[in-house]
Amino acid sequence: MEPAVSICVPMYNGAPYLAQCLESALSQTCTDIEIVLVDDQSTDNTIAIAEDFVRRNPRIRLYRNPKNLGLVANWCRSVELANGEWIKFLFQDDFLESNCLERMLDARRSGVALVVCQRALEFEPGTPETVKQTYLEYFSKYNLARAFPNRPVISPDDFSELLLRHPNVNWIGEPTATMVHRSAFERFGRFNPDLVMLCDWEFLARVAVQTGVSFVAGPLATFRVHDRSVSATNRSRYYRAEIIDPLIIQHELVYLPAFEPVRLAAERCSPRINLEHRFVASARAARWLASQLANDTAHPDPRPLADWHAIVARYPKLDSLPPGYIFAGAVRRAKLICSRFFHAVQQVYKYN
Description:
- The chain is α/β, with parallel strands linked by helices and about 350 residues long.
- The protein is built from 15 helices and 9 strands.
- It folds into 2 domains: about 5-235, Alpha-Beta Complex (Spore Coat Polysaccharide Biosynthesis Protein SpsA, Chain A), CATH 3.90.550; about 240-320, no CATH class.
- About 50% of the residues lie in helices and about 15% in strands.
- The protein is globular, with a radius of gyration of 23 Å.
C-alpha cells in the first residue's frame, strides 16, 4: 500500500553518521512511512550498516546502484524508487526530531506541494570557528521565518518576489528540512544535474513559485557540518560552485517555463526589472573572470575557463548577446555621454 511519506536517504560513504540518521527516521511518531535507502556505490561500511537496519525493520528498503550515478542523479533515483504520497529527504549526515513528520503533515495545505521546517546546525568536533561563524550568520540571516514572519503559508507570488530579489540565496535550507508532494516531480521536473551547489535550492524554488510553501516554525531537522560534506567539497572549486551555479539559475529564471511567475513579478516592479539583461551582464562578467584567471601570469588556472566552455555547450545563451541588450547598452552609453557633456557645460557657465 502507498504510505503517506517515503523517507528517502541517498547514501554515499556515509558510515560515520548513518546509524543516527536512520534511528531518527525510525523514531518518528508518524508511522505511515517507508524508508528508502539508495546507495551510490559506497566504499566504506555504509552497506553493512544499512543491511543491519533492513534486517531489523521491514519498513526499510535498500537499493544499490549498479554504478556511481553522482549526487543529483542519486537524489532523482531515490524519488523514482519511493512509493509515498510525500517525499521526505533525509541526508545521511543529518537527523530528524521524532515529531518532524507529524508536524509537517499537520502543516499541509490544499494545492501546496512543498512543506518546509526550520532546521538546526550541528558542528563536528574540530570545526574551525570561522566556518562555524559563517554558517551561523548565513542561517540567521537567510531563512523563511525571517523573510516571512509569522506566515504558516507563503503564496507563490510572495515567494516569486523573494526569489526575484535574491535568486542565489537558499532561503529554504537543505532537503532534509523539506517534504515534497510526489506530484511536484511530475509537474515541474527533477533536480538539475548541471548544478553542483544550488541544485536543491533551484528545484525547491521552482516548486515554491508555482504552489507556494507551507512553513513549520521550530527546528525539526538538523544539518550536520563537517569537512567531508558535499558542501565543503564543492566550495573548494569556487568558480564552478559560486559563479557558474548562480548563472544557471539566472538562465532558468529567464527561460524555464516553470519560472514564469518570477518573470511576471519582474514586470510588476517599478521600475521594471529586465531579467534577461541582468543575466547577460552576469554572464559577461563570469566569462571575463574565467579569462583573467586562465591568463594570470603569476598563477594561471585554466579550470574556470574549461568550466565556462563546458557549461556554454549546455546553455548557449550564456555566450550570446540579444539585440535588445546591445541597444540598451548603446542607450546607456549615450545617456552617460550626454550627462557628462551637460555637466561640463554647467561647469563652464558656473565659472564664466
